[in-house]
Amino acid sequence: MTQRESGILLCLVGPTGSGKTSLARRLKSEFDGTLDVAVSVTTREKRPFEVEASSYFFVSKEDFKKMQSRSELFESEEVHGYWYGQKKAILDAVFTKKIDVVLDIDIKGAFSVKKGYPDNTIIVFLLPPSLEVLRERLINRSPVSEDELQKRLATASIEFQALQKSHKQKLSVDYILENETLEFCFQELRQILLTERKRYARLSLEYVKTQCFLGMVQS
Question: I need a labelling partner for 57 at 20 to 30 A (CA). Which of 49, 76, 86, 171 fits?
């Protein structure tokens, strides 16, 4: 019996260094089979430690434009001179496969997803404990120039501003988690997912009838 009518689009947003990728992988490892991680498409070059189709789908700008023209991308955005986008087919898995999909995405993209899938999208904003901790994480994460560091910090500032502007708006963040330690943050995120899976509107009627012992009652 199918427990849910559809899955959840769990958008993890926050500055680079807030732990989005690590948390997404942890969720994938624990809930494999009922949860997948959306892999974005990008035009930037692959870094030595990245894996094609796991970290990103790396494509040329020409191929990216072709995907846009064929409406294969749900949303796309230019960041620091490179294009990023989400494949629509991956998002549709919440309906076709009834699984949850985690997106490592910026806040603007998350709001686009929520606008397109309002009943299925949950946005979690991951906060570093402080700006100084964020700076340290960015420096220790991978070799980065001072110019690149300042760009990432500026992007983080823009995301924080968007977070504040969205307060109590229709398109808003649903949860805020402070990622002081990855393990504690993961346990909080895990609980959010489990709770959202039990939201009544997402459960199938047949499942509800069975669980409530109403299968014997003629509807």
Answer: 171
